[in-house]
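debug: dumping io for the single-chain case to check the tokenizer round-trip. Nothing else runs in this session.
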Amino acid sequence: MGIFARLATLIKSNLNDLISSSEDPEKMLNQVVIDMSNQLIEAKKQVAVSIADEKRLAKQAEQEAANAAEWERRAMLAIKAGDDNLAKEALARKKEHDQLAAAYKDQWQKQKQAVEQLKTALRLLNNKIEEAKRKKNVLIARKKRAEAQKAIQETLSGLNNASAFETFDRMATKIDQIEAEAEAAGELAEQYSGDTLAHRFGQLEATAGAEDDLLALKRKMGVAPPEPPKETAPAQVRVAGGPAAPTAQPTNVPSQAEQDELAAALAELEAEEQREQARMKR
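debug: decoded output
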């Protein structure tokens, strides 16, 4: 029973303590399961030996009982032959075999009881080892999950480091400075080359006829009233012998649409000038 005591002690040990060991928990758990399996094999061998002893005792008890029956038969033959002394000797020998048969039978019953207990213990130990194997798998899964969580936390700790974000902020500030310098250089180049004024007038010329083009398209589509007919100036009649009538001089007064368009262009120029002044102040 020593092997069962050692195996039971091994199985009852707390496997969770292996997680905090300095050695690799997964390797330790695998080695423990291997050791338990090897000891279980040894235990099975001892149980097999005990079963063999039980069968041997049973056979010996049967054999002694058979010997006793044989000497009883011989005693009966001696009685039939009229030899009582020989019959007595045969009965004495029968008695010896009966005693041996009883002793073997008693040992066989005790051995049989012990074998049943060993079988029960072996089944329990086998179940505990299977449970230990399952627990080993759970512990290994916990270990791997803990390692993954630890790696993630270490990564997050690295990301939470203030120096990393300070680097991003410093680089963003540097890029802002480069962009501001590039804009300032562009504005200076435009001012010294006269491109700013040309750009303003280019925008004005590009949008000057937009309203007229839109109105013409609407009239073409029929969604705007047609253009009113132009008034023709009355022909100048020259009276014979009289002074010629004065010819009408063209007027230079702009129309209302032209005045509105000019006012809008001036407002846009003023707004652009204010934006440039604001950028220069920055």
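debug: round-trip ok. The mean pLDDT is 76.
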